[in-house]
Amino acid sequence: MSGAAIPRAARRGNRDPQPLRLAPGQLRARVLAHLHRHPDLDFSPTDLARAVGRPGSRGAVINACRQLTGRGQAVRSQDRPQRYRSTPPDQPTSTAPPPPPPLPTPTPTRRMEPPHHG
Prior knowledge:
The structure is a single chain. The protein has helices spanning about 10, 25-35, 45-50, 60-70, and strands spanning about 75-80, 85. By secondary structure, it is α+β, with helices and mostly antiparallel strands.
Protein backbone atom coordinates (compact mmCIF):
# COMPACT_ATOMS: atom_id res chain seq x y z
CA MET A 1 0.00 0.00 0.00
CA SER A 2 1.32 3.46 -0.83
CA GLY A 3 1.08 5.71 2.26
CA ALA A 4 -1.68 7.85 0.80
CA ALA A 5 -4.58 8.35 3.13
CA ILE A 6 -7.88 6.99 1.92
CA PRO A 7 -10.75 9.45 2.42
CA ARG A 8 -13.18 8.28 5.09
CA ALA A 9 -16.14 8.32 2.68
CA ALA A 10 -14.26 6.03 0.29
CA ARG A 11 -13.47 3.57 3.11
CA ARG A 12 -17.15 3.11 3.81
CA GLY A 13 -17.70 1.53 0.41
CA ASN A 14 -20.85 2.30 -1.52
CA ARG A 15 -22.75 3.79 1.39
CA ASP A 16 -23.84 7.38 0.99
CA PRO A 17 -22.12 9.85 3.28
CA GLN A 18 -24.14 10.92 6.29
CA PRO A 19 -26.62 13.68 5.31
CA LEU A 20 -26.09 17.18 6.65
CA ARG A 21 -27.13 17.90 10.20
CA LEU A 22 -30.69 19.17 10.54
CA ALA A 23 -31.70 22.30 12.43
CA PRO A 24 -33.40 21.79 15.81
CA GLY A 25 -36.97 20.59 15.33
CA GLN A 26 -36.52 19.90 11.62
CA LEU A 27 -36.51 16.10 11.95
CA ARG A 28 -39.66 16.24 14.08
CA ALA A 29 -41.31 18.44 11.45
CA ARG A 30 -40.35 16.01 8.67
CA VAL A 31 -41.70 13.04 10.61
CA LEU A 32 -44.96 14.88 11.33
CA ALA A 33 -45.33 15.90 7.68
CA HIS A 34 -44.86 12.29 6.58
CA LEU A 35 -47.43 11.06 9.11
CA HIS A 36 -49.91 13.72 7.91
CA ARG A 37 -49.41 12.66 4.28
CA HIS A 38 -50.40 9.11 5.24
CA PRO A 39 -52.97 9.47 8.05
CA ASP A 40 -54.35 5.94 7.68
CA LEU A 41 -50.99 4.15 7.90
CA ASP A 42 -48.83 3.06 10.83
CA PHE A 43 -45.05 3.43 10.59
CA SER A 44 -42.15 1.92 12.49
CA PRO A 45 -39.29 4.25 13.45
CA THR A 46 -37.16 2.53 10.79
CA ASP A 47 -39.84 3.18 8.14
CA LEU A 48 -40.04 6.83 9.18
CA ALA A 49 -36.25 7.26 9.22
CA ARG A 50 -36.07 5.99 5.64
CA ALA A 51 -39.08 8.04 4.54
CA VAL A 52 -37.57 11.31 5.78
CA GLY A 53 -34.16 10.57 4.28
CA ARG A 54 -32.40 9.78 7.58
CA PRO A 55 -31.97 5.98 7.52
CA GLY A 56 -29.16 6.09 10.07
CA SER A 57 -31.15 8.19 12.53
CA ARG A 58 -33.62 5.65 13.92
CA GLY A 59 -32.95 6.74 17.52
CA ALA A 60 -33.51 10.39 16.68
CA VAL A 61 -36.75 9.47 14.90
CA ILE A 62 -37.91 7.58 18.01
CA ASN A 63 -37.23 10.72 20.08
CA ALA A 64 -39.15 12.83 17.54
CA CYS A 65 -42.09 10.40 17.70
CA ARG A 66 -42.11 10.56 21.50
CA GLN A 67 -42.20 14.35 21.35
CA LEU A 68 -45.03 14.26 18.80
CA THR A 69 -47.06 11.85 20.93
CA GLY A 70 -46.42 14.02 23.98
CA ARG A 71 -47.78 17.01 22.08
CA GLY A 72 -50.80 15.04 20.88
CA GLN A 73 -49.74 15.35 17.23
CA ALA A 74 -49.17 11.61 16.77
CA VAL A 75 -50.25 8.42 18.49
CA ARG A 76 -48.32 5.28 19.27
CA SER A 77 -50.56 2.72 17.61
CA GLN A 78 -48.57 -0.34 18.72
CA ASP A 79 -46.07 -0.94 21.51
CA ARG A 80 -44.10 -3.96 20.26
CA PRO A 81 -42.87 -3.33 17.70
CA GLN A 82 -43.28 0.42 17.99
CA ARG A 83 -45.57 1.94 15.38
CA TYR A 84 -46.82 5.49 15.04
CA ARG A 85 -49.52 7.28 13.10
CA SER A 86 -50.90 10.78 12.75
CA THR A 87 -53.43 11.92 15.34
CA PRO A 88 -56.96 11.36 14.03
CA PRO A 89 -58.60 14.62 12.92
CA ASP A 90 -61.30 14.38 15.60
CA GLN A 91 -58.75 14.39 18.43
CA PRO A 92 -57.22 17.58 19.80
CA THR A 93 -53.64 18.17 18.70
CA SER A 94 -52.51 19.83 21.88
CA THR A 95 -51.81 18.45 25.29
CA ALA A 96 -52.48 21.80 26.88
CA PRO A 97 -55.07 21.53 29.64
CA PRO A 98 -58.57 22.56 28.65
CA PRO A 99 -59.54 26.11 29.52
CA PRO A 100 -61.17 26.53 32.92
CA PRO A 101 -64.96 26.67 32.98
CA PRO A 102 -66.46 30.15 32.95
CA LEU A 103 -66.98 31.77 36.31
CA PRO A 104 -70.54 31.50 37.58
CA THR A 105 -72.70 34.51 36.92
CA PRO A 106 -73.43 36.27 40.19
CA THR A 107 -77.09 36.20 41.11
CA PRO A 108 -78.57 39.59 41.90
CA THR A 109 -79.35 40.09 45.54
CA ARG A 110 -81.96 42.39 46.96
CA ARG A 111 -80.55 45.17 48.96
CA MET A 112 -82.12 45.39 52.35
CA GLU A 113 -83.28 48.87 53.23
CA PRO A 114 -82.98 49.83 56.85
CA PRO A 115 -86.38 50.28 58.49
CA HIS A 116 -87.66 53.84 58.52
CA HIS A 117 -88.66 55.19 61.89
CA GLY A 118 -91.14 57.68 61.38
